[in-house]
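Repro:
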Amino acid sequence: MSITILDTCSAMRRILLAPVADRVDLLRSMLEANRGMYRYQPGEVDLVAVHRETSGFPVDRDEERCLDALETLAAAGAWERMQRALDHALAVLLEATPGLRVPDITVLLVLGDPGDEHFMGPCLGVTGFGGISGHIAITVWPFPENVERLEATAVHELHHNLRFGPGGVVWDPMTVTVGEHVVSEGLADAFARQLYGDELGPTRIGVPHLHDDEVFGKVLTGLDVTDMRNLTAWVHGDPSAERYGLTPVGLPMGAGYAAGNRLVDTYLAATGQTAAQALHAGSSEIIAATLRRG
């Protein structure tokens, strides 16, 4: 049982300094360690294509800009800080959840694409994915706010990884609901807040709407919507839905994160639990705590 943050700092520096013709192969080699993240996708996954589609740093432009950004992350001790944060967070979760089954986890931290307007704009320069047991991927541009929140970002994804890990909540892409996704984001944010406070803990895209009753009410109307393809608009908001050619539903960026925080906070207040203790709490139970309040 271990958490390993890969030395992508050295790998990215090598890629960005290599001749352009060599960079794709070097990038593919760096990404190979996280291939298991895509084990449920049919057919052979092109890791470089996924990297590009998910706002990973470019290999054919902006070299100096990316190298400068890489040095900013290195100078901030990003990899070391995230390793310490994840080790501490794991200890907290193990203490709160006796018998928790923890796989070996590989963490891939990569620079984002400074030329990607959606990533640098609506996404605020940071995305993460920790929903597949044993693998975490975080894509970041070192805006000061993101560098300050590196630990919170990492432990948010760890909470996902263990919530949906062995013996935890089952995530079926065809039957999963907006409610399940929203609750998982709220729990992960609550865990980051538990460890790093209300200033650094919440995912940035959700913060503007934390107290917006209209947004909250709108998300509640979609909690029973199923199928992962329909979740993006409800959880991340219309800007992300439009980016990926999906149907918008009239919600701002990060709406589902804001709603998830409110749902989870109501549940935690009602039960007296911490987010760590609620790691495997059922989404229907968490949602019901809010609905009971009317």
